[in-house]
Every structure is written in structure tokens, then in C-alpha cells.
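input
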Amino acid sequence: MTNIILNTDSYKASHYKQYPHGAEYISSYIESRGGIYSKTTFFGLQMFIKQYLTKPITLSDIDEAEIIFTAHGLPFNREGWVYILEEHNGLLPLEIEAVPEGTEIPIGNVLVQVINTDPKCAWLTSYIETALLRAIWYPTTVATVSKACKTIIQKYLTETADDLTGLAFKLHDFGARGASSEETVAIGGLAHLVNFMGTDSMSAIVAARRFYNADMAGFSIPAAEHSTITSWGRDNESKAYGNMLEQFGGKDKLVAVVSDSYDIWNAIDNIWGDELKLEVQSMGGTLVVRPDSGEPVEIVPQVIERLMARFGHQLNSKGYKVLPDCVRVIQGDGVCAASIEAILFEMKKRKLSADNIAFGMGGELLQKVNRDTQKFAMKASAICIKGQWHDVYKDPITDQGKRSKKGRLALINENGEYNTIARSDLNGDQVLIPVYRNGVLLVEDSLEQVRLRAE
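output
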């Protein structure tokens, strides 16, 4: 969908006729009103601005939109869109201010504020809601989920490992095939890369290059899937594994092999731990064994302990067992924040260091989120009518959680605490900064800058 006029909800087409006579400016804001996590990691707005808001609308876009909306049963604001085309060269007369991307903000605070810059386009602020809110809630929610997983993994590494080496590669994005679209993978996968550097979502790598100037935002390794193992036949399972070592093993190299196609315990005890043990130990790199079935909290510790029985282990400075460098484990089935916590908790009980394990997360990372995961909303909060500003808000008696904020807003940070206040009460700097005005991107962050803020 490249026509921004059509990138909206149907009913938005009729709203230009619904505002009070004399309306000149409408100011709206976006916030996370609540949800699973108490803070959100803001991300993704720059991507949307570059892709959609720096490109002018054309007369063909207006004509197309008029045909579709009219046939759809709605009025069309042709006069308004032609005005934008002629007076603003097709670029949207809006100003968007937002918190710096990568910043972690407590729920209930303004993240984005948008206002029209031309008094003849007051209707435009809310018209953009559908596209703008979606562009923010999804990547911000994915970045928040990813950050929550990172916090859990970091906690257990701190408790059971000598250091945090490798933390950036402890959660790998496996979500591309389970996402609803290629654009979803690009946006959500890139949001994950705010926190980690492991991914199999190529679309996210491309998005990082295009929108955040990252030459290479994430990394992967050669890895087997079931078809590349089972195509050898059950009787040749060890040959399939041996081929993986021969093709991809070597000094300082990593290779991942799914090992549950038939019998994970036989694979560990008799193939990896016996027939191919010498090859694993002598290749100079690391074999990453991947179990892919069963109850993860039960299977993962058993896999690690069986590998230790075959390859040995050492005790780290905190008294936890660590596999030799030649072998590790990745769990990519049934992984979510809760199961990561449960697996690492069980490992800790068994004195197994979190160093031994990495995780791959798919649908839970990119797909099992929605706007209500963090209760995102965009609401109008102020209107200027004939030169006078008025508060705009909703306060439904049936759901106080949906009460919206009033007036033009500001976000302040006092001693590390974020608070949303009335713009009129602002005394000094605020966190919200203008990032877009009248078709121009005002602030361009690199992915590295976003990552540093997220840290």
C-alpha cells in the first residue's frame, strides 16, 4: 500500500466534516495505557517516516482514493487533498515529536505527539492515526518483549555465569515464517535487533540497512533443518550429522544441528557423544545441538546433562556447570518470555550455567502480540478553534482505564523518572523532540544510537 490517502480506516474519510466550525489545529498523542510490561522500549517511527511520510502524494493518488472511497460509500475530501498537493507539494503538513528511539518509558506516558502545521488541515492529524499508531505499537511492543527476554537472560547469566559474554546472541529471531507478512518480519525483526544481534529474518537486515544505516545489524550461522537430516534416511543419521561438521565445522566456527528427528537421546549418547565425539572435540569450533520437541523445561536440562555426561564439564567461579567450548545447546521450540524464565530457573536448580544455552523465538516474538498487549492508543487531546485552545478528552464511566489525557502535552525526566505534564507547565527541556515536519525527517538515528539508548 503506497497511497497514504488509502492507508487509513474507512470511517476516517468522513471525519473532515465532523469537527467544529473554525477548527484550525488538532493535537493528538500516542501512549501505552498499560499491558503486560510496566515499561515500553520505543522504536520504529523513523522507519515509518522514511517509508511513507517523506514521499509526496500525487494527483493519481488523489484520483485513485476518490474512486475507491466513493464506491465504498463514503465522502471524499478531494478539496483538502488537492490543497495539500498544491500548497505543500504533496507533503503532509504535520509536525510529529517523539521520545528518542530506544528509550524505555513507563506506561501511561506520552510517546508521540502530532499536530497539523496548516490551519486548513486540522482534519489531517487524526486521519493519519491508523497508519501512525500501527507503525508505533507493533515495533515498540516487539522491542519491549525482546527487552523483557534480555532482562531475564541477563539475570540468570549474572547469577550463574562468570560474565555476560555472548548475551547479545542469547535470543535468536526465528519468526520470519510465522509472521503475517514480509513487512511484518522487517519491522518486528528489526525491533528485536534493538536488543540482540542474532536473527534469521533477512528482511530485518534489509530494513536496518535502509532505515537505520546499519551495514550489518545481525548475524546467523549454518544450521540444519529436519529435511536436511531426514533426507539421508534414519539409518544414515550419523552421516547427516558428520556432513554438517565436514561442511561447516572448523576453527572458531559454529554450526547448529537439529537432533530430534528420531531419538534425541540416541543422537546425544551414541552419535554426538560416541561416533562423532572426536570430530566435535577436534574441529576447533562449536557444535550447537538443537532439541526441537517435547516439554522444554524438562528436555533442555536433560539435553545439557547428557551432553555433559559425554563431553564433560567444568565448574565456573560461581560453582555452576559449563559444557566445554566445543558444544552448546539452542532451544527454539515453545520459547517465550515465560518459558525462558522457567527453563533457566530449572537449569539453575540443577547447577547448570545459563552459559550453556541460547534460545530461538518465533511466533511469540513477531506474531503473538497485538495493540492490547501494551494497550496502545492515539487520542486527540487539544483543539484550537478560531485562535482559542480547548482541552479534548474522553472519560467513559464504563472503563476508567480508557480515560485520555487533556491538552498539549510534554514529557519530562526528573532524576530518572518520566512524567507527562501539560505543555503550559513545562519549565525547561522536555524529552519529546520534533522528528518530522512538513515532509522532512528532522532526526535520523543509526541503529547503534538506538541500541545504546536501549542499554
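quick obs: The two ends are 34 Å apart (CA to CA).
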